[in-house]
């Protein structure tokens, strides 16, 4: 390795690097150890303000915006038909081929065990959304495949883990399709079934259907509280109805028209154990729910910085709520490492929940102690990477750059130090060296940056393998499509539906 010094901070900030293929210094030698954070007084923040290096030149104004060019159709298609939709397609097609064979009478198993196909699909749908299962998958991949495997394989691992929701959606819809087929079949032969079985079949189907409707992208992204309440409470009702429907269906003997199948027979059925598994996966995360102590710093009217005790590994997200069982909101976790005293959440003030954190800061808040892994958790798979974010998207990005010297941080925002306060600024200045940091203040520089120009230069300079993006819908769209067109591997925030007037929180 060459002993050339790292590029100066003000050079990196300009976004125009004169060196084409620099030999990078050995960053491992200069890796910083995370320091314990001093307890700060929420009402007195100036004493913790970071010292800005005096040799950092004031950034030049932003260059004129280039003319907007159209994204090629192949790029639009490749990004739209991502692994999420591919997973959904495979699961959906396989199940509906099975339903076709069942309707045609060509699949005896489906005729004999329709309940197992219903609950089996629902079981998988719940499993892939379970925090424990997700953390185990991320741990397995990060432990056994980090850095040494081919880049295409590691990119595939990240894509798979990020898009498991396609399996969740596909199995949930397929499960409802199977129960509709099962109930229709029972009504066709209603002389064989007790009225209570038919009634519970209809109620369970309706509950599951409402649960799915509440989880549709349009509802989830435009009416978050409606999604949270209905998807959760109708989901729990569906679980209860599934238990009743499974038991009465298997306990009933169509031969003599009585509920004379004993408990042992019911327990031996596949549907019973699928329902046990589904119930376990749903209940486990709620066992870890706690009413945790929280300190809230309000550096500006736009942002609340929440501080919780104990450190965290990078790439995790936290769900928090003012209620034990109502709406939970997910935010990226900022931490110096598992050894640290605290971890932080950046909550941009946009909706009713985040506004309440500013107007009426709580001393305790409900959270799940078991955090779930986000796409950033796979950053350990890569030798070098870039984390680009805008505004409050820093919350999901900063831990990766704090805990690894091989990740470059690009943060685009407006008046960041004043808006986000000394705690967040201090974490950046203490742990992310100027050789791997580019802060673009659109207020100082006079507008938005030439994002793709900067990103391409940093990608070459840093010799990165991948780019992770956390931005709003417009920013994510532009960067992800630009990266695809430039041949840069990139992963961004998932967006299923956005109306013209909607701007979704990172």
From TrEMBL:
Keywords: Membrane, Transmembrane, Transmembrane helix. InterPro entries: Adenylate-forming_domain (IPR052979). The keyword Secreted does not apply. Coiled coil: none annotated. The chain crosses the membrane at residues 87-105, 136-153, 165-184, 196-218, 233-251, 271-287. The keyword Membrane applies. PANTHER family: TRANSMEMBRANE PROTEIN (PTHR33927:SF1). This is Non-ribosomal peptide synthetase.
